[in-house]
Design a protein that fits this description.
Oligomer: single chain
Number of helices: 5
Strand order of the largest sheet: 1-2-3-4-5-6-7-8
Number of strands: 16
Largest sheet: 8 strands, antiparallel
Distance between the termini: 91 Å
Shape: globular
Length: 283
Amino acid sequence: MNAKISVLTSFACFILLLAGCSRDNENIPGGIEPPKTILDAFNLKYPEATDTEWTVDDDYYVIGFKNNHLDNKAWFSHTGVWAMIKTDLPLNQLPEAISASIRQSNYADWLIEEVDTIGRAGMGTIYKVEVEKGKQETDLYYTVYGNLIKAIDDAVNQEDIPIVVPDKIANLMEVTFAGAELLDIEKQTFDVKLAILDKTVFKTVLLNEEYSWQSTTWQLSEKEVPATILESFNASEYSHDKITHIYIYTDADGAFYKFSVIHNGQEVTVTFDVFGNIVSMPS
């Protein structure tokens, strides 16, 4: 009899233990309790956060929460280092410069579904605008000034994740582009493309696979183009063509001015060196 009572008692304790665990999990949103170092790091960075829910995603602890009446998601490394924040932004808070850029683009008649801001460690804040037309969905990434950083088509399963900035890129930003913000790092087939914001000027920087600088490109208004270059353009066969964009391109060979024009019904690029000579370069 004592043996039976002992077994029943043990079983009852086991059931109570499970029930206690279940209750504990119910009190932990998402059923996950991160280590104290993670919780402390989160509470220090977002002391006003409410409605928290923790999950684990690969190398990061991810928390959904509300702050300033907005829905957020933040990423922390397993050592408690903040890596990224993504915030749902009401459509009426989309900066006008971005709205204007969309209205003047090929996405003018697309429906804006959602807007987020994304901030990453060691990088500046960008805006993500999800647009759709019929069954097509595209993610548009912008600077606060309305510069299109990139567009990702068919972006139904596109995930925004933390980006670890390589030391060489961090050093490049600190020395060569001091004062500028790094916005995006995109690895391509043979090189690496950086999107940076130099004060209010959006620039594209190309690096080789070893992260050594190759070139920098940014857009100019017509009034920013040196008079010598404009005189050469106006004296060329392209003088009566519609100018769509003007860029300055710099590499190891110097600076060049690229005019995108509509010539004989086609968009072509005309490149001038600093002396106003037309040169042949990849468009």
